[in-house]
Amino acid sequence: xxxxxxxxxxxxxxxxxxxxxxxxxxxxxxxxxxxxxxxxxxxxxxxxxxxxxxxxxxxxxxxxxxxxxxxxxxxxxxxxxxxxxxxxxxxxxxxxxxxxxxxxxxxxxxxxxxxxxxxxxxxxxxxxxxxxxxxxxxxxxxxxxxxxxxxxxxxxxxxxxxxxxxxxxxxxxxxxxxxxxxxxxxxxxxxxxxxxxxxxxxxxxxxxxxxxxxxxxxxxxxxxxxxxxxxxxxxxxxxxxxxxxxxxxxxxxxxxxxxxxxxxxxxxxxxxxxxxxxxxxxxxxxxxxxxxxxxxxxxxxxxxxxxxxxxxxxxxxxxxxxxxx
Length: 325
Ligand code: BTN
Description:
By secondary structure, the protein is an alpha+beta fold. The protein has 9 helices and 14 strands. It starts with a helix and ends with a strand. The relative contact order is 0.12. Biotin binds at residues 90-92, 114, 117-120, 123, 125, 133-135, 177, 188-190, 208-210.
């Protein structure tokens, strides 16, 4: 980490509050001249830092620039490496490549734009500016296939908790990986596993989350405009702290992962489910089917009662609500 990045982390942690040059110099063991130089560099990058002779340096509250230092200033778990890229092809692809090359660190990669975002079932995930694209590289010992399937719903609850805590908004969950706000999709999750061929008892998993944070919905492809929403309308002059939002999400995610494969999150998942108790359409073995969702079981599979009375367990795939207006 450079001196500039370390100073930015301190300023982000104390956002809106002045911190003296002496305090920063002692904390980082650098000269006052080095601090002055780094602060000027930050100002050139667009940071609004007020410098006063008596009180020191203060990063303005309105400054909302996403960065690795800003994210780190807002996470409790300090053992995680955070990478920030203004733009990338896909944060999932970046971390899968690291895992394939043998990386055993826990890494979070965040980006503000993806040129080739990946969605579930081989789809693309349109990832314009204003969204938050985040992937987690985590490693497990003796991970069973049935446990991998609970990671996506677990991540959905982490997003739901983060959005409630930071923006005070209530989201709904559509099995298995979509989150909705006021009937529009605002988040999708894609979990990809990478098994270590040398040591098949350890697996690396990449969990990717795409959040429509502050999108200009008019810039989306026309076919997406009726179904995609945004947490914060971009016209709305809401004061955002995007670093805090991402930091909170990272903490929520790791709080859940430390209990893995505990199913404590399942109650919240079910309480916010929009498919429980609904008639749904789905595909099973390439056949179109319908049925009533009677439960979501401990494997996060849907239990669907068909007209015949037969109960079908759906572990993966997609459902759509049958009589939705
Ligand atoms: C879906 O809705 O089909 C899942 C979308 C998952 C998108 C996220 S954005 C961050 C990460 N990087 C990707 O390329 N995909 C996931």
